[in-house]
Amino acid sequence: MSVAPAVSVVVPTHNRRDTVVSTVRELFAQHAVDLEIVVVDDGSTDGTSEALEALGDPRVRVVRHPRALGQSRARDAGVAAARAEWVAFLDDDDRWAPDKLRRQLDAAAAANADFVYCTAVTASVTGTVFDHLPAPDPDALRRLIRAYNVIPAGSSNVLVRADLLQRVGGFDPALTHLADWDVWIRLTEAGQAAVCPEPLVAYILHETNIHLDQSGLASEARHLRAKHARSSLPGQLDRAALDGWRGWAHQRRGSSLTAARFYLAAAVRSRRASYLPAVASALLEHLRVRRPKVRELVPPDWLARSPAR
């Protein structure tokens, strides 16, 4: 009789065969944890399922959708197939420290927690680090999570008890950009959180990041706000912060004038002058007066030692 793994890692993917295979190979290096890797091939046409099966590793299970159903339904399909007590999510283009799961399990045990998150960094595909994204403590999480998505690195961060995830419900198929935030709000309401302050996740920036396509985001924000209108948690969705995030995404995609408009909207909504340097930077970039300087930070040791993809 086989023993259930400690953690099921759910990896949704669509037409990124080489990327997801590299990500799965890196998952094999997770230290001191018995895991299964549930890859949900969401309607790929590039041989993704066959490439994963060719790895020949019994820890890898592939759930295949004959047509693409979207990331929310893909993640839910992965959760339905998972066998472990704990579930973690990893986007197919992000990266983990090799002891990420072990540290999160230990933090959960120490705090008797139901879910765990950690600090993260943003990085290029070659491992250059641009930003350090600190994780709040659990008290701050409860104060802030309705206003901002304060758990960094999207869905690639959280480790959660499978029974709690089942109790609060899965990912909302009406949401794409904000689907992870919606789940984190529900987890925070219903469960006990713990945090690992170390940077254990790298959110990888590249030309096909989903956040670069901002279509539908305004309606998603309205849906999220209405959905949690009666939440027991304090606060409500901060539209200024969302405008600031939209400005960053538009600046990344080269739409500098649109970025300036969103930064300005954030400044007006929040009445905070801290957004004005971003407005000026985007306008100067639009006028081709200067290009923004790319700030490079010292990478975490585990990322510095990892080979570039």
TrEMBL record:
Domain of life per record: Bacteria
A Pfam cross-reference name: Glycos_transf_2
InterPro entries referenced in this protein's UniProt entry, alphabetically: Glyco_trans_2-like (IPR001173), Glycosyltransf_2 (IPR050834), Nucleotide-diphossugar_trans (IPR029044)
Entry EC no(s): 2.4.-.-
Residues annotated as domain Glycosyltransferase 2-like: 8-168
Enzyme class at the top of the EC tree: transferase
A GO MF term: glycosyltransferase activity
This protein's record includes keyword Iron-sulfur: no
UniProt keyword terms in alphabetical order: Glycosyltransferase, Transferase
Protein name: Glycosyltransferase
Species: Solirubrobacter deserti
Higher taxonomy: Bacteria, Bacillati, Actinomycetota, Thermoleophilia, Solirubrobacterales
